[in-house]
Amino acid sequence: MRKTITRRTVLRGLGTAVALPWLEGMTTARAMAAQAAAPPVRAAFLFVPNGAIMQRWTPAALGADFDLPPTLEPLAPVKKQVLVLSGLAHDKARANGDGAGDHARSAAAFLTGAQPYKTSGRDIRVGISIDQLAARHVGQQTRLPSLELGCERGAQAGECDSGYSCAYSSNISWSAPQSPVGKEVDPRAVFTRLFGDPTQAASDQQRARQIARRRSVLDLVARDAADLRNSLGLADQRKIDEYLESVRSIERRLQETEKQNTIELPADAKVPAGIPPEFQEHIRLMLDMLVLAFQTDTTRVASFMLANEGSNRPFPFLDVRSGHHELSHHGNHAQKMEQVATIDRFYVEQYAYLLQRLGSIQEGEATLLDNSMILYGCAIADGNRHQHHDLPVLLAGRGAGAIDPGRHLHYPKDTPMCNLFLSMLDALGAPDHERFGDSTGRLGQLTV
Question: What whole-number distance in Å separates Cα of residue 345 and Cα of residue 337?
């Protein structure tokens, strides 16, 4: 006899609750519960700092028949799932009388479309961000209303950019005009937030033994998982096996990172526990957990700052030894521009990785990517001149039919990026908004 399962079904163990991916068997359960059979729509917003070398970014042709320029070449395997959106702007990232501070304004305006109040004190103010507005509408349907990720810690006070608070440079998610939503940068903390802590409910003695053995979350729910698997069809059994293996893979990588971080280091060297020393591995761990959060419907809204705005991180593994922000002020120096383009391409590679992971997961006749909208970009175009129009913006996925990807679209100069956000709200099932930020209407051409 098959077991009734829904999207709210979880595998339970001591202090642990592991949500399930979308399964074919859920269609019947949802129908029995008078719920919609279609998987939900998700939205993720990825932010990169310091603009881009736009000559290496922008395709020459419009429509579906365009060649990927050098920076976007990593998108080749998923080109048909991506829209390249040229011509969008963030006016509120401009000075508008406030003087210097373009980097702080870029991050603050990216998802809010609002002008940040220039201050380095406690009286910060900008506006609610689109991810948090979306979470108000769809967040009550999931265990986590939204998920905020990052790879660089950021201060919430003090001055970081020409009189602007560090809170502006370090956050893209704002639940209210004066309330940034802090991002989580520790992969172990994210994993625990998604799946619970295997040691949470144990006694001190049990906890010590569990930590010593590095017991897996999946070990604690093994019996529940076995019972469920036996009640499923063959296709769903394979899907459960693949999903649980992906969870276990992340655990293994986290444990390896923690082992590395227990190695005795020089007195002046500090590696935060749980954060891989390799930047790419850090990003990919976060992306893999974002995929799991969407796959299990733990959340439908996420944001990810791959680095804080104005980040001066070097990329020695790319043979780029100077800092990113420093290089972005290249003065049209060819060698510096080439190094910035190398960084740009690296970040696009991480985006492509996320899209391929989402596209590999089936949800009925579609994929997780088909049922998602994955935005990538920033509110600075040319980092050298601090331009805030013709921004580097990508949108992937089909939003469950709301978007026709695989094209390069060009909009009139200074078309507000917030027009795109209004269209994304519609696709998420939150259409009761006529304005957001500095929007002037919905963004056209998203469907053919």
Answer: 12
Q: Which carries the bigger pLDDT value, residue 14 or residue 336? A: 336
For residues 248 and 218, what is the distance between their CA atoms, to the nearest angstrom?
7
Calpha distance 287→276 (Å, rounded)? 14
For 247-266, the pLDDT digits (tens) are 777 777 777 666 655 544 44
Q: What is the pLDDT of residue 374?
A: 98
pLDDT digits (tens, 9 = 90+) for 125-163: 999 999 999 999 999 889 899 999 999 998 888 999 999
- Cβ atoms of 148 and 303 within 8 Å: the answer is yes
Q: In 10 A of CB 385, how many CB atoms?
A: 12
Distance CA 412, CA 417 (A): 12
Convert 181-201 to b/e letters by CB count within 10 Å (16 or more is b): bebbbbbbebbbbbbbbbbee
CB 264: neighbour CB atoms within 10 A?
A: 5
Backbone angles phi, psi at 378, to 5 degrees: -160, 180
State residue 236's pLDDT score: 77
Strand partners, 17: 12
Alpha-carbon separation of residue 378 from 66, 278, 409 (angstroms): 23, 23, 17
Per CATH, the number for 38-185+275-427 is 3.40.720.10
Answer yes or no: are the C-beta atoms of 27 and 368 closer than 8 Å: no
| CB-count exposure of residue 92 (10 Å: 0-12, 13-18, 19+) | buried
**What DSSP character marks residue 270?**
-
User: What are the structural domain ranges in the chain?
Assistant: 1-34+198-272, 38-185+275-427
CA separation for the pair 437, 417 (Å, rounded): 9
- Rounded Cα distance between 43 and 441, Å, is 20
Token pair listed for 205: 């003695």
Please state, in angstroms and rounded to a whole number, the distance separating the CA atoms of residues 56 and 72: 8
Task: Estimate the share of the chain in helix, then strand, then coil, as percent rounded to the nearest 5.
Answer: 40, 15, 45
Length of the chain: 448
Phi, psi of 317 (to 5 degrees): -70, -15
pTM for the whole structure: 0.82
pLDDT in tens, 281-324: 999 999 999 998 999 898 999 999 999 999 999 999 999 999 99
- The rounded distance, in Å, linking the Cα atoms of 97 and 147 is 34
